[in-house]
Amino acid sequence: MNMSATYTAFIRKQAADLGFDHCGIAHAVQLDDDARRLEKWLNKGMHGSMHYMENHFDKRIDPRKLVDNAQSVITLLLNYYPEQQQQPDAPKISKYAYGQDYHEVIRAKLNTLLARMQETMGEISGRGFVDSAPVLERSWAQRSGLGWLGKNGMIIHKQAGSFFFIATLITDLVLEYDGPVTDHCGSCTRCLDACPTGALVQPGVVDGSKCISYFTIELKEMLIPENMQGKFDNWMFGCDVCQDVCPWNRFSKPNKTPEFTPVPEILNFTTKQWEELTEEEFKKIFRQSPMKRSKYAGIRRNLRFING
């Protein structure tokens, strides 16, 4: 067995030991097609007020500008599908936010993986990313055979659906590479038809400036545009509609990551309890939750909007 094969097998085993559900590896190259698509998307203003999407364009499309002499992009998927769901009439929260903040959970796993690689392989360079840097993680997931880009803009894994976090580790190691898989959305348009705000403007293209997740999480202004009134389908933080209706998510299984155990209040709070929540209580209950991204004021704004 050559060293690339040995190292590849080692990385896959360590990733599985750390709890990652799937691991794919692609050759680090410049993503020319993705560069054109990203430029078009930005030029149409589909990123709304998320101006950080415009930054570091060159690094976004070329991993070799993030890690010197980068040779390989390792993509890891971590399932977050919850075993339990919220009370039916409560303000809805995206499933990814039921437990602890995934950034912290995954960053710790990536750091451990890189440390184990360095212990075994010596002087290697690498950087791990989870939503924290200009990396086109869905493109790399696709290139490394972990799924195809669904019409809802999500990576869909044929055996496991789309309720996954994507993490990326770029390294200067030469490894064995996976190839892309074929698209299996076929003629299905359930996600396009179900999107409450028409944010899925064409297959695989999400107009971020129309997405409920954008309005309830990313938008910093205290007023949500009036033309969205009545379209939020009771979503208070994020939105899962385009994943919930996807036939491939019938294969979703509950995650095995203890940190993603739902915060009890998320499952059990009624609308009234959300409305009566104080800022002090919010900070205490959700101190480790992704919901703190919207801050207390954002959650209050979202509540007012969906109940208005």
Task: Tell me what portion of residues adopts beta-strand conformation.
Answer: 5-15%
Radius of gyration: 20 Å
Largest sheet strand order: 1-2-7-4
Q: How many strand units?
A: 10
Output the number of helix runs. Answer: 12
- How many strands, what sense, and barrel or not for the largest sheet? 4 strands, antiparallel
Subunit structure: Monomer.
Keywords: 4Fe-4S, Cobalamin, Cobalt, Cytoplasm, Iron, Iron-sulfur, Metal-binding, Oxidoreductase, Queuosine biosynthesis, tRNA processing
Subcellular location: Cytoplasm
Family: Belongs to the QueG family.
How would the blueprint of this fold be written?
Blueprint: H1 3-17, E1 22-27, H2 32-43, H3 57-61, E2 72-79, E3 92-93, H4 102-121, E4 126-129, H5 137-143, E5 148-149, E6 155-156, E7 164-171, H6 190-194, E8 200-202, E9 205-206, H7 212-218, E10 235-237, H8 241-244, H9 264-268, H10 271-276, H11 279-285, H12 295-307
Parallel strand pairs: 3-10
Antiparallel strand pairs: 1-2, 2-7, 4-7, 5-6, 8-9
Helix pairs in contact: 1-4
Can you characterise this structure?
With 308 residues, this protein is α+β, with helices and mostly antiparallel strands. The protein has one domain (1-308). It is built from twelve helices and ten strands. The protein has helices at 3-17, 32-43, 57-61, 102-121, 137-143, 190-194, 212-218, 241-244, 264-268, 271-276, 279-285, 295-307, and strands at residues 22-27, 72-79, 92-93, 126-129, 148-149, 155-156, 164-171, 200-202, 205-206, 235-237. The strands form four sheets. It has a four-stranded antiparallel β-sheet, sandwiched between helices. Strands 3-10 form a two-stranded parallel sheet. It has a two-stranded antiparallel sheet with strand order 5-6. A hairpin with a 5-residue loop joins strand 5 and strand 6. The longest helix has 20 residues, at 102-121. The radius of gyration is 20 Å and the shape is globular.
